[in-house]
Specification:
The chain is of the alpha+beta class. Helix content is 41%, strand content 24%.
Length: 138
Amino acid sequence: MTTDKTIRIRMATALDAVNLYQLLVAEEEKSNIGLAFDETARLVHIINVIATGYVLVAEKSGRIVGSAGFANGAPGYASESILVSDWMYLLPSLRNTDLGKRLIKKLLDKLTKFADLKAVQTRLFIPTGSKLSAALEA
């Protein structure tokens, strides 16, 4: 796997919402999954995840080239807050690099710092056998 040192990973802000929306919708349209998406609801969802969860963007020359969005919440069956992967997207040209792994590691670093400062424990659930868990083990 290669590392592109010109790609910067940072926390997303509300100002990134429209660019993230365009990136994610373009990919969904290419996937041909046949679902209709409400544009406004999708944009509001992205803004909500940025505001209440953890969203990282990978940026190269001012352009978002990848993102990982994790929603923070407590499902009805759980007594504690969990972090759930909402999206993980890399431009196709960056999928055989270590960028996905770097995004996840940056998230884990952020969570560790947050937990230490706020005395809050957040768990990240990644299904074993998934492509994401395999990438993290590499």
